[in-house]
Amino acid sequence: MKVTFACPACDQPDAVLVDATHDWQCSACDHRQHFAAADSALPDCVVCSNHEFYKRKDFPHTLGMVILVGALLLSTITYHSYEKWWSWSFLIGSAIIDGGLYLLVGDVVVCYRCNAHYRGLTASDAHQPFEITIGERYRQERIRQERLK
After folding, report:
1. Which among 53, 123, 128, 147 has the fewest CB atoms less than 10 Å away?
2. Are residues 46 and 111 in the same domain?
């Protein structure tokens, strides 16, 4: 299982495999952290020991926006040229491409507290989609911690 996370000391992004127990050292600030081997059920986050996770699609948001904006620009140009069938074909085609990509990409499990992304893990029933109330609670926690610094 691969974990992508930000260094707790300097927020430098990094990724590690947590199939076995090992020590990690940040390349930017030399912060050290011990990672225990992650259980396949993922009861706790290996980075921050939090127990609340959510799942989402592992899809790059910029690619989705490029598809959407490209379809909107092409449909606007063809609509201005009175080619309405081309406009609709660009819009419907982008929706089909987007839906196909949604079905093809897998899920990633994310920790609410430290935003660590777990790839190569089969999401279970315990990993539900993002819940705004839980996310807001952790966002407020981060704000309080920053004010205390």
Report:
1. 147
2. yes
Residues 51 and 6 in one domain: yes
Q: What pLDDT does residue 55 have?
A: 92
Residues 48 and 89 in one domain: no
On the CB side of 146, CA atoms within 13 Å amount to 6
Determine the pLDDT at residue 24: 87
Domain co-membership, 100 together with 113: no
pLDDT of residue 10: 86
